[in-house]
């Protein structure tokens, strides 16, 4: 059980990442990590199963060939958009007042909250998870889990955040992997795994906002007292920035993505000599070449990043913990690699801001990209699955040749699961587990398409692609500008999430 392999798959809107980790006791070694451009995924949700499998199948086959294994099951990240959060309570009363509250009772209370919360429609909704916020013994309130364990009391009450999402995206995950002959061991909603990957225990204890700037969606998770206090997401991310460049410059999506990676930057007035550069875009026909000033490109990117940031700051404000974020903001995901992005968010918010790279809780066997911001989800899935004692996800090649039977779920026939009008109207949030009443089992970033694309190089560095490196230590926190943020963003936010009240 302790010497095993975990296979994690991050289904992102811009890329699919597959990672294989060897677990030996407490040692975690990532022995395979690779990203491929995704297809059929929008806003972190699988829409077209056949297109997803076109990208996923060669990735699985490459890992099996390189490692001489057969992947039998995987842990998968769940959608982070179109999920809502609600509050709930669970109560155990008439206890023996002479008996102390035990850890087992706390776990039973969590299970009760998860299993008994009434869903509006069990056929369309599923509980992604429940996070305990505080406990009470009837006399003392706002107690943490480690504080109430050991107290004698007749009453035990818990307050929870329940995360509810759509069943269809979860079902589509099962359909996709069943068609590949691979079982889904667990589905995890990604905010908590990502936090385990990039945040330190002291940051989660003293207050921090984790912004995950992914390809199709951006999310914010607010932590205080080592508990996730608030979660929200919006359907804008790195692909929105790419689409803005494509539309404004009238170029292909692939070329826009390439240019963004090579020249993508915020704050055009602070690019120094780079802002004077002109990008020559070969039209490939008799039409004249296009000229794109780097400063204009930065203005396009800055406007979209500002919109995303103001949405995140609005969510931080309504969480009620805006004044408790002693560790400011941590920015992760593929979009975090945009030049000056952290500085721009710091300027808008007044918080200290740093990039969220996966912390070195795992070792890497020469796998490039494991410690980049875009791999935060993959590393988080591995850490979470290891702590949940997920069984071995692979079989050796020799075992497969000997005819060992591997049983998978029933074959599904749906290629694309249509969305209902109600699904298009809902939003927001979750953490995964198992339960009844329609629950599912518990259980990003930018690569170029396969066709050849002209590489755009940065004249300052002579290199193309994304920029990396460790950020400079943040400067002292400034005073947050909540009034300004709220006024700027309130009108737009009402249009985005009118039907998604938390």
Comma- or semicolon-separated keywords:
Dna Ligase, domain 1, 502 residues, 5-stranded mixed β-sheet, Nucleotidyltransferase, domain 5, 3 domains, 6-stranded mixed β-sheet, disordered C terminus, 25% strand, globular, alpha/beta, 14 helices
Description of the structure:
It is a single chain. The chain has 3 domains: 3-79 and 167-201 and 359-425, Nucleotidyltransferase, domain 5, CATH 3.30.420.40; 83-165, Dna Ligase, domain 1 (2-Layer Sandwich); 218-356 and 454-496, 2-Layer Sandwich (Nucleotidyltransferase, domain 5). The two termini are 40 Å apart. It is built from 14 helices and 20 strands. Helix 7 crosses helix 8 (253-263), helix 7 packs antiparallel against helix 9 and helix 9 crosses helix 10 (341-349). The radius of gyration is 23 Å and the shape is globular. Strands 11-7-1-2-3-19 form a 6-stranded mixed beta sheet, with helices on both faces. With 502 residues, it is of the alpha/beta class.
């Amino acid at each position: 059980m302790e010497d095993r392999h975990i296979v994690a798959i991050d289904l992102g809107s811009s890329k699919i990442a597959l990672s294989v980790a060897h677990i030996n006791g407490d040692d975690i070694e990532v022995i395979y990590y690779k990203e491929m451009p995704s297809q059929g995924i929008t806003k972190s949700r699988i829409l077209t199963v056949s297109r997803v499998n076109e990208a996923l199948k060669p990735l699985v086959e490459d890992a099996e060939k390189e490692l001489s294994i057969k992947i039998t099951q995987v842990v998968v990240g769940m959608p982070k958009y179109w999920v809502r959060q609600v509050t709930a309570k669970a109560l155990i009363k008439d206890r023996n007042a002479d008996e102390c509250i035990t850890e087992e009772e706390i776990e039973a209370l969590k299970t009760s909250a998860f299993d008994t919360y009434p869903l509006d429609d069990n056929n369309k909704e599923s509980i992604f998870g429940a996070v305990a916020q505080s406990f009470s013994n009837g006399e003392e309130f706002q107690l943490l889990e480690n504080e109430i364990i050991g107290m004698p009391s007749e009453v035990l009450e818990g307050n929870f955040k329940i995360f509810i999402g759509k069943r269809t995206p979860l079902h589509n995950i099962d359909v996709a992997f069943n068609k590949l002959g691979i079982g889904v061991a667990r589905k995890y909603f990604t905010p908590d795994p990502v936090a385990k990957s990039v945040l330190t225990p002291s940051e989660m204890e003293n207050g921090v906002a984790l912004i995950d700037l992914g390809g199709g969606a951006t999310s914010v998770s607010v932590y205080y007292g080592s508990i996730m206090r608030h979660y929200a997401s919006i359907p804008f991310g790195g692909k929105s920035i790419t689409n803005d460049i494509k539309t404004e410059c009238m170029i292909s999506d692939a070329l826009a993505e390439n240019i963004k990676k090579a020249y993508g930057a915020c704050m055009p007035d602070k690019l120094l000599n780079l802002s004077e550069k002109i990008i020559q875009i070969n039209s490939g026909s008799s039409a004249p070449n296009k000229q794109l000033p780097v400063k204009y490109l930065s203005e396009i990117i800055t406007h979209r990043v500002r919109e995303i940031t103001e949405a995140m700051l609005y969510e931080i404000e309504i969480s009620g913990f805006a004044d408790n974020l002693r560790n400011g903001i941590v920015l992760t995901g593929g979009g975090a690699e945009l030049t000056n992005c952290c500085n721009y968010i710091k300027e808008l918010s007044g918080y200290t801001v740093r990039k969220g790279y996966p912390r070195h809780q795992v070792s890497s066997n020469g796998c490039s990209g494991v410690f980049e911001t875009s791999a935060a989800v993959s590393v988080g899935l591995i850490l979470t699955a290891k702590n949940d004692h997920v069984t071995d996800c692979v079989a050796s090649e020799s075992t497969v040749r000997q005819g060992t039977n591997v049983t998978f779920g029933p074959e599904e026939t749906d290629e694309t699961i249509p969305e209902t009008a109600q699904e298009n109207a809902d939003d927001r949030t979750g953490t995964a587990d198992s339960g009844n009443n329609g629950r599912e089992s518990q259980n990003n970033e930018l690569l170029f398409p396969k066709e050849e694309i002209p590489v755009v190089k940065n004249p300052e560095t002579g290199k193309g692609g994304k920029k990396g490196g460790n950020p400079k230590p943040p400067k002292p926190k400034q005073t947050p500008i909540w009034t300004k943020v709220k006024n700027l963003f309130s009108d737009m936010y009402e249009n985005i999430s009118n039907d998604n009240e938390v």
